[in-house]
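Aim 2 progress update. The chain analyzed this quarter is reproduced below.
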Amino acid sequence: MDESLMLSERYRVDIKAYKVKPSGKHPEGVKVKYVLIDVIERQPRILVDNHSPYGFHVHTRLPADKTHRLPLATTDYLEALREFRRLVAEVLAQ
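Predicted structure tokens:
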């Protein structure tokens, strides 16, 4: 997957998922980056990615706290995408 979608005048999502050789950094054999970007502020708001030692996780305190991560209880990139979409819907409803 590699797509970018404007959701509104303010928000864009970039969705990337690539097959990679399973390794210590990406044991699932996939590398993902799902990001909600505030195009007015030019800052990410939500980021889901995966890498060792955290596995799939979400950054919800962007841009203020880039190190804050919440683990996602999945090893599947499509489940992680569903959670990302749910979080994006919450931001858009505000």
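The longest strand covers residues 11-19. The helical segments are 77-93. These observations will guide the mutagenesis experiments scheduled for the next reporting period.
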